[in-house]
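Entry:
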Amino acid sequence: MKNNLKYLFIIMALVFLNGTVWACPACEKNQPKITQGITHGAGPQSNWDWVIIGVITLITVLTLIYSIKFLVKPGEKNKNHIKQSILNH
């Protein structure tokens, strides 16, 4: 199980460090300082856009945390449960 987690973290690091996901120079100039070099497009236009970005980020992070939590340590102890079949591979 520990080897699988090590490989998962390596794959995630490679995906996030991929240079093709960064913004192009033209889009970088149009972005506010906090998002320069990260995203494409014009960027947030008002304070409401920042609120929306914050809420979406919070939902995404919580979903990721709970997904990993329940995959690694499922509450079901039944050997026939679908989560157990995933963990045993």
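The mean pLDDT is 78.
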